[in-house]
Amino acid sequence: MERVSGDSIVIYRDQTWKDYERMLRARGDHSPPLLAFLDGEIEQMSPGESHERVDFNCARMVTDYCLAHGILIQGLGSWLLKDKLKRAGLEPDACFIFGRKTAKRPDLAIEVEWSRGGINKLEIYRRLGIREVWRWRKYTLHIHQLVRGSYREAERSRFLPDIDVELMTSLLKLRYVNHIVERWNGGRGR
């Protein structure tokens, strides 16, 4: 086994195809787990296909919108955000910094929630000082803005005030529903 610096990559040498398939079975057909910490509780969540589909499409819409409107944006994926003193940390589904600045925290985080009962991620974001969180929940995109230390739901983004959130929600639903229809039809399309 060899560790490579930078991305924390582990390489297993002299493995067989059976070893590879065994590791895939052990991991399952989900993405690697994302970890969240809040006041002594750790949540480990492995995103499924639907989760990743919404995450990717939402982040892509933000990126495409910014490119089309000349808005400088830095996409940072699931950047690990943590603060030991505030007893909070997580890896967002996607996050962004607007402009050319370097920052210790993103301006905007995207959080896809399919399941209930996990750690209160908005509380983690609040403690970390993330100014805006877009949360996909119950097939709707919700915008939360940090105002005087607490989140308030908003109709528009402070960073992208002209982006059509209702249209984004409709497109995300459509892409999700089309995927389900394709799976239902055995991949034969509609």
Descriptive notes:
The chain has 190 residues and is of the alpha+beta class. It is built from four helices and twelve strands, in the order ββαββαβββββαβββα. The strands form three sheets. It has a six-stranded mixed beta sheet with strand order 5-8-9-10-11-12, sandwiched between helices. A four-stranded antiparallel beta sheet has the order 4-3-7-6, with helices on one face. It has a two-stranded antiparallel sheet with strand order 1-2. α2 crosses α4 (165-184).
Any idea what the radius of gyration is?
Answer: 18 Å
Note the overall shape: globular
Total helix count?
Answer: 4
The CATH class designation is Alpha Beta
- What's the structural domain tally? 1
Indicate the CATH topology.
Answer: tt1808, chain A
What distinguishing features does this structure have?
single chain; 190 residues; alpha+beta; tt1808, chain A; 4-stranded antiparallel beta sheet; 12 strands; globular
Compose a concise summary of this entry.
By secondary structure, this protein is of the alpha+beta class. The protein is built from four helices and twelve strands; from the N terminus they run E-E-H-E-E-H-E-E-E-E-E-H-E-E-E-H.
Outline the secondary-structure elements:
Layout: E1 2-4, E2 9-11, H1 17-27, E3 34-38, E4 41-45, H2 49-68, E5 73-75, E6 81-83, E7 88-90, E8 94-98, E9 108-113, H3 121-128, E10 132-137, E11 140-147, E12 150-154, H4 165-184
Parallel strand pairs: 9-10
Antiparallel strand pairs: 1-2, 3-4, 3-7, 5-8, 6-7, 8-9, 10-11, 11-12
Helix pairs in contact: 2-4
